[in-house]
Amino acid sequence: EAGVAQSPRYKIIEKRQSVAFWCNPISGHATLYWYQQILGQGPKLLIQFQNNGVVDDSQLPKDRFSAERLKGVDSTLKIQPAKLEDSAVYLCASSSEAVRLAFGSGTRLTVV
Amino acid sequence: AQTVTQSQPEMSVQEAETVTLSCTYDTSENNYYLFWYKQPPSRQMILVIRQEAYKQQNATENRFSVNFQKAAKSFSLKISDSQLGDTAMYFCAFMTWGSNYKLTFGKGTLLTVNP
Questions:
Q1: What is the β-pairing status of strands A102-103 and A107-111?
Q2: Residues whose CB falls within 8 Å of the CB of residue A42, separated by 6 or more in sequence, listed in order
Q3: A93 with B102: Cβ contact below 8 A
Q4: Residue of B93, B102, B106 lying closest to A48 (CB–CB)
Q5: Residue whose C-alpha is closest to residue B30's, from B66, B70, B69
Q6: CB-side exposure of B35: number of CA atoms within 13 Å?
Q7: Is the CB of B4 less than 8 angstroms away from the CB of A48?
Q8: pLDDT tens across A37-87, in order?
Q9: List of chain B residues with pLDDT < 70
Q10: What would the pLDDT profile of B59-84 be if each residue is shown by its tens digit?
Q11: B93 touching A (Cβ < 8 Å)
């Protein structure tokens, strides 16, 4: 089966610009996650979707971050405006069973 | 709140030898899962092994095994017969049943296997 697809793989932007990341989960996976992984740290959950509804967005900085999941399949994560501290790897994961997450290869964002 | 602590930022081991990575966690929950994930330079997180807290028997997956000490809240990973391909970041992670199955990760241990 195809894995979790993410794009772009790398992105460099200036502070105050906007950026968007795309994720295509494994077919049939109802749950989709976005994680932020800052250099030297473990991933931190930003938002969790169940189908196209939000289950948990308690750690999403809502003043600048937004996410949506279209028709319960693909998802986009947007940052507007970006700050230097947003430099990180953004990982998408999906699952059909809570304890079996499949991760994508992430997008490395550098804000200069 | 649940926390996961990995006290070894970096470790190294010679090829074919055995290495143990440490992890401790803190929770007031009784039902939870523990995981070890591997993250190679490709950045994709790969599940190495999973342990259910209600199971007393330690999980094993080929060369990978865990030492789960529930009372001590300790969950270490042993890699036997280390291979060059084991070189990666290793993350310990925790998931409770009642938290929407949210994973909480430690800061990771960089393991280098030397030839």
A1: unpaired
A2: B4, B91, B93, B105, B106, B107, B108
A3: no
A4: B102
A5: B70
A6: 23
A7: no
A8: 999 999 999 999 998 899 999 999 999 999 999 888 999 999 999 999 999
A9: 98-99
A10: 999 999 999 999 999 999 999 999 99
A11: yes
